[in-house]
Design a protein that fits this description.
- Keywords: Disulfide bond, Mitochondrion.
- Helix content is 72%, strand content 0%.
- The protein is an all-alpha fold and 79 residues long.
- The chain has one domain.
- Helix 1 packs antiparallel against helix 2.
- The protein is rod-shaped, with a radius of gyration of 20 Å.
Length: 79
Amino acid sequence: MHTDLSPHLHTKECNTLIDLLKQCHEDHPFRKFLGYCNSIDQQVVMCLKSERLARRQKNYEKSLEFKRKLREKAQSNMA
């Protein structure tokens, strides 16, 4: 099961892979149950994972900056 596959949530690269997967499922409605589209699905999974890890790193860096600003503000209020 994938996360939300809406185009506005993903990069151009991942959207291309998602479109390929959807097309494979449409072209092969029975074979998809037998693993015919699994190679494309695996590429989608890897792309979504790389997006998630990049988002996680960005949020971590943002939190560090926020904490730094809070410490500076707290120190300036004490002085």
